[in-house]
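Most newcomers find our protein records easier to grasp once they have seen one. There is nothing in a record beyond a sequence line and a structure line. Getting from the letters to the tokens is the skill we practise here. An example says more than a description, so a record of this kind follows:
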Amino acid sequence: MFGKRTSFGGNTPGVNVAPPARPVERAPRPDPARRASEEAAANRLRGEEVVDVRTPVDAQRDKEYFATKSAIFNALIDSIDLSQLATMDQDAAREEIRDIVAEIIALKSIIMSISEQEDLLEDICNDVLGYGPLEPLLARDDIADIMVNGSQKCYIEVGGRVRLTNVRFRDDAHLMNVCQRIVSQVGRRVDESSPICDARLPDGSRVNVIAPPLAIDGAALTIRKFKKDKLTLQQLVKYGSISPEGAEVLRILGRVRGNVLISGGTGSGKTTLLNCLTAFIEKDERVITCEDSAELQLQQPHVVRLETRPPNLEGEGEITMRDLIKNCLRMRPERIIVGEVRGPEAFDLLQAMNTGHDGSMGTLHANSPREALSRLESMITMGGYALPSRTIREMIVSSIDVIVQAARLRDGSRRITHISEVLGMEGDVIVTQDIFLYDIMGEDGNGMLLGRHRSTGITKPQFSERARYFNEEANLVEALENANVEQNELLGA
């Protein structure tokens, strides 16, 4: 099948490879379990808990292992035509590589146990077809973030906590090869001339790479993983991120085409919450998404996904978020979803919300609803608009209906802490009204925070008129009354 596969195989004409008379003796390999245990103990002394995500052979990662792997890998590259791998099914290509590697191991008389050989085969297949040492981490659905700090340190976030793993790359060049493979899939590059790159994996996971010379200790790779099964509002209720009544209010907001701004800090779950809200968009609505790296997972059939583009080597050809939003206004959208608002495109998004594109949504970084409004105003002024502050605030008030605040608490849990309605102006000040809040009440014996979502007693928010238009007013009133009854019962207790 492979055109270059001529160096190995007893039936190849003109090739006579005689195996040695007896196996080559090699020095005994260090005990992998003992090596891993000693490494974990050393890290514990430094205050770092190591998460073992690899097999014993992988955990050893000593010079002998890398030397053996390099010799086999080089022989593999010499014996096959890698260009043909792109035309093959992934499973078929993996099986073909495993067959050739097993043949190379036999011809080179490398002494290995069956388990060691299986681990080496899997490792080489990952290097050729996948993302090398990162494959075991990407396969786990419980990992939220992967943070590679140079070739010798890799951290993960599990359950809201950051843990050190024993994943290692062969060297800095090996790490850069994996980074190049990731970013090249979306038509981008990372090298000395372009050392910063944002990209995404095929499943939408967000990737950032910063390479030397900017990263002094080797390339830094950060992957924000997405779960294979997309979270729903009901699951957020199950996990305690929002109360059932608060989830019903969010469902109604998505259904009645409210303009929603999702605010929160890094890793607070803004994109996850945005995905949950978009689930209530009607199937016949035309939705256009604008993102730096396409990661939203909308399930509607009529979705157009747009993605920004960085400049080329000559500094030309850049397509910014503002360009995308301006263009999508000409594409007859019914809703515009902006993955993250971080600059002058805030002005264009507000203009879209205020000119017939009800139900548009976006996220931004802020620590409270009030701060989100201030950041919006600041981002508009970044665009060079010489508008009075009052004019900008009036535009914000007329465009945004609700701000949903998400937060990542110190115990690693994620909560929706505010559902706040934008009411109007009093003088030069924007007036907001909290509908739901999250109160922290203490912590348990394991250091996990205890809290509860509570209603503020609002029974008729300003978007009730919109809910009546979409026949959702009864559901909205019922959800708010139930929340108030529960609140009164808790106060009475």
